[in-house]
Amino acid sequence: MKILVTGGAGFIGSHLCEKLLEQGNKVVCLDNLFTGARKNIEHLLNNPNFKFIEHDVEEPYNFEVDKIYNLACPAAPIWYQKDPVKTVRTNVVGIINALELAKKLSCPILQTSTSEVYGDPTIHPQTESYWGNVNPIGVRACYDEGKRCAETLCFDYWREHKVNIKVVRIFNTYGPRMAVEDGRVVSNFIIQALRNEDITIYGQGQQTRSFCYVDDMVDGLIAMMDCENFIGPVNLGNPGEFTIKELAQKVLRLTGSNSKIIYKELPNDDPRQRRPDISLAKEKLQWEPTVQLENGLEKTINYFKTIIS
């Protein structure tokens, strides 16, 4: 199979490209390197079945492929808030271009949506039937609403043009190749701990998150793409729930750091609780994560040790 991965030089995208190649596929990786990095795919560049093309998904593209994975969008607040208009365009224009290609080729397309479509949820854990609680004019809306609109477009192309869509909602994912400067909580805590700097917690650290190791996430994406007669949306994430303070304490223990925890004001619209109900993924995909948080953190810590040394 020949497979297109937009955002393929990003954190999750590069791991997906790697796994697809291991399965014997040919992979076209499309990325404008806004948040993706060539170093993430450097080890793949000499593979004859891998092709990297630097391109912005806001501009149309045309490839002969059998499947499309659309991962193109900055996912960390520090990056998607840097240029919010571009974030919306990447989500909306980007998925239109991907859907148009899928329509032309009559091939399946998987859209990576996000748990952010649930906003600051009023139900817990979050199920796919929940419509969300999103501030449409807040600082996070460029990403939250951009992803929600992208889901709308997927389902409209399915209804109107019979495009074979697959929609997944990704919950917090971590692992090697996270960017040092992306501002996400796992990478932030690990880097601060390894440098013996203060670990910054926003609010009192009682807000909760669920953390899925990247290998589990990639397996979930592929399982969804290969699933017959199911279009989603489906939650992909680890249902283990931890407070941000618990995460910080685990990182401190695993790194043996001398860092101290400090507290700062909570950002606007920061969700108080986040945990996926993955009953649907278990039923339809026979998928659930297997990597426990401490094991995944150890692997991620070892990666960052090599990066910041």
Walk me through the structure.
By secondary structure, the protein is an alpha/beta fold. The chain has a domain at 2-175 and 212-238: NAD(P)-binding Rossmann-like Domain (Rossmann fold). Helices cover 39% and strands 17% of the residues. The protein is built from ten helices and 13 strands. The strands form four sheets. It has a seven-stranded parallel beta sheet with strand order 3-2-1-4-5-6-11, with helices on both faces. A two-stranded parallel ribbon has the order 7-10. Strands 8-13 form a two-stranded parallel ribbon. Helix 4 (84-105) runs parallel beside helix 5 (141-161), helix 6 (185-194) runs parallel beside helix 8 and helix 8 crosses helix 10 (293-308). The longest helix has 22 residues, at 84-105. The protein is globular, with a radius of gyration of 19 Å.
Give the C-alpha Rg. Answer: 19 Å
* Helical content band: 25-40%
What does the average pLDDT come to? 95
Count of discrete alpha- or pi-helical segments spanning 4 or more residues: 10
- Strand order, main sheet: write it out: 3-2-1-4-5-6-11
The CATH superfamily title of the domain at 2-175 and 212-238: NAD(P)-binding Rossmann-like Domain
Sheet-strand content, in percent, reads 15-25%
How many individual β-strands? Answer: 13
- Taking the alpha carbons of the first and last residues, their distance comes to 39 Å
Q: What is the CATH topology descriptor of the domain at 2-175 and 212-238?
A: Rossmann fold
* Poorly predicted segments: none
Query: What is the ordering of alpha helices and beta strands?
Result: EHEHEEHHEHEEHEEEHEEHEHH
